[in-house]
Each structure stands twice: as structure tokens, then as C-alpha cells.
Amino acid sequence: MTANLLDYDLEGLAAFCERLGEKRFRSTQLFRWIHQKGAIAFDDMSDLAKSLREKLKTTADIVALPVISQTISSDGTIKWLFDVGAGNAIETVFIPEDDRGTLCISSQAGCAVACRFCSTGHQGFSRNLTTAEIIAQLWYAEHFLRKHLSRTERVISNVVMMGMGEPLQNYSSLVPALRVMLDDNAYGLSRRRVTVSTSGVVPMIDRLAQDCPVALAVSLHASNDALRNDLVPLNRKYPLAELLQACTRYLVAAPRDFITFEYCMLDGVNDSLQHAQEVVKLVRSQHAGSWCKFNLIPFNPFPLSGLTRSPPEAVSAFCKVLSDAGIVTTIRKTRGDDIDAACGQLAGDVRDRTDVQRRMIIRRSTEITNQVNSNTATAVREDAFND
Questions:
Q1: Active-site residue (options: 91, 133, 142, 262)
Q2: Has residue 373 been placed in a domain?
Q3: Which entry of 17, 111, 292, 343 is annotated as an active-site residue?
Q4: Is 91 known to be catalytic?
Q5: Which of 60, 235, 263, 279 is least enclosed, having the fewest CB within 10 Å?
């Protein structure tokens, strides 16, 4: 078995070189060839000793992910579908802006959190990605874009771990990948420009603050526990009070002085003025200052969700309540929805390993049956009373 060098952060690569009997500084040279120059052939790494190059040919390789498809949106967004084996695929999205280039990266094949409004969650969970598979998305996108755009300098300025999966449920692979992204000998990204998005895995939020604090985005989507239990099932394990306390603790180590809360706007579900007022109360219950900002996300409908997008006037009214309360609030511009690359649309060709669709149908059927039985029982009691 050869080692895939995309699996290593700089410290791990140094240890690998030492096992080959090489000096640690060789790892820095090798790291730069892989990540800064996009090299995959050891013979191309001209400043490495020939003896090291020969050793690497028999002990290591640089394995990118096979590209199944590439789709370019009318707005310039690019979506790649990568093959990760066993019938599974992951998706990665590049979003160009005038002042930045953002890459949305997946951390799992599928997702076990099963948020109601997310098409990936409806596909079920297959497996965690390795560090190499996480980094391979950035490696491929960066070097493809340099050629595609005829540029020699870095194209990707921001990375968001907002693709398929819950990053903090794949912590052991995530942290080394983050360290590669941040390393000046690799991609040299600022901690402020690397964002981990989580649905609220409280213990791992605390660990991330200690191990590799980057920008944090939390998928909130609800103003109270009862609603969030339905939309984000993980809330039953880590309710809102615990989640918000973890967020305020994270601020001590965070590279920014705020946490971003993502809020998917669902028509008639979480978008009323009362919900907005509850959000304000929720935020103020944890911290008096300006410690968070909200990103309101237009829902991207898909079959099986049973949900629809909030109308623009409802989103604007919700935004006004938060803004009037002094909470920085933005409405996300939808990008790449014509190629199913918008927020919540990433599904790929992922097997339904958790049988989630069948379970959801059973759960909803049970809820309907219970409601019918309850209504019937009420009617029987009323008839008996009337008699």
C-alpha cells in the first residue's frame, strides 16, 4: 500500500519523510510542490533529491478524485461531481464573486443529520470522507481554475465547509484538512476565510475552538426547540440553549468577533414575524452585545421535502425585525440553482444507506394516523356527551 500524500498536513508529511530517512525540511519542499504547484509526478519536483524521488515512487502517490461531471451555471458557478467509490459521489461548488472566489467543500458522502429542508439529508449517509478526499476537492478546483482562467496566482480565496455532510461528525479528517488549507506552504488561507458550518454538534464546537479555530457558521433555522426538533433532528440531542452557549464560548478563540447563523426561510414554517421576534429574544438571552450575524437563505425546493420557499416580502419583513433589533442580517443571493448547486441542493449519486426515505414516510404516516385517531376519539367523546 502506498500513502496518498493528500492525506497529510505538513506535520504528518514531515513524519512520513522521516520514516523514509529524510530530513524534515524535505516535507516543506514536497508540500509546496503538491499544493502550490499542483504536481502529481515526482519526477517533476526538480529541487527534490533524486534519491528521495525514487523512494516516493514506491511508497507514495498523489491521488486526486475522479471527476464524473462538471457543470457551469449561467452565473459562473461551477459544480463538480466527484467519484468516491462504491457507487457514492460528492459535490463541490465554486462560486465566483468580484472580490473573492469561494469553494464549497463536502465532508461526507451523504449526511446523517437529516434536516427536513436539505436534499442531501434525504439521501441518507454513506461514509465519512478521508482528509485526502476533502483536500482533493480544493486541490483539483484550485489548479483547474488557474488553467481555466489563465491565472498564476491563487484563485480560491475562501473555503466553506458547507457541502454534503456534517463536518464536525467527521472531525478526525476535518482538522488535518483545515490545517492544510491554512498552511502558508500550501493554500495560505486566512482563518477568517475558512468557515466550518455545523448543525450544532456541541462537544465538537468546543474541540474545534481548541484545535483549529476558524470562522464558524451554525445552521439554526428555527426560533424555538419544538420547531428545531422537527427541522434539525440533532436539536433533540443538543437543544438551543446548549448550542448557543457553545457558540458564545467559541467566540473566545474565533478569528472573527461574531458567529454566523444560517436560517433557511420556509413558507409558513419558520418565517413569521413572531418567529423573528423569538430569534431576537433567543440571541439576546445569550449575549448583550453584537456577537452574531444572520444569513437568511431562500429555500431551494426539491421533491419529498413538502416545503416551499418563503415569498420575498416575508423574507424582507423577517430581515427588518432582526435588523431593527441591531442584529446584522443579510439575505443570501441564490447562486447556481440552475445546476442544482445552490444551498441545500447537493445530493449527488449517494446511496440511501440509512433507509431515510422509508423511515420518513413511516414517521409521517404514523403522525397522520395518530392525528386521525385523535380526531376520531374526540368525535366519539363529543357524541357520547351529546347523547
A1: 91
A2: no
A3: 343
A4: yes
A5: 60
Count of beta carbons in the 10 Å neighbourhood of residue 32: 18
Give how far Cα 131 sits from Cα of 112, 117, 125, 174, Å. 19, 27, 18, 6
Q: Active site includes 343?
A: yes
Give the CATH number for residue 130: 3.20.20.70
| Bridge partners for 104 per DSSP | 93, 160
In a domain, 381, yes or no: no
- pLDDT tens series, the chain, 387 aa: 899 999 999 999 999 999 999 999 999 999 999 999 999 999 999 999 999 999 999 999 999 999 999 999 988 999 999 999 999 999 999 999 999 999 999 999 999 999 999 988 888 899 999 999 999 999 999 999 999 999 989 999 999 999 999 999 999 999 999 999 999 999 999 999 999 999 999 999 999 999 999 999 999 999 999 999 999 999 999 999 999 999 999 999 999 999 999 999 999 999 999 999 999 999 998 876 789 999 999 998 888 889 999 999 999 999 999 999 999 999 998 765 665 544 444 554 444 444 444 444 444 445 545 555 555 454 444 454 444
Would you call 375 exposed, middle or buried from its count of C-beta atoms within 10 A (0-12, 13-18, 19+)? exposed
Q: What angle (nearest 5°) sits at the alpha carbon of residue 287, between those of residues 169 and 290?
A: 95
Range of the domain at 46: 3-61
One-letter amino acid of 150: S
Q: Tell me if the pTM is above 0.85.
A: yes
- Does residue 380 belong to any structural domain of this protein? no
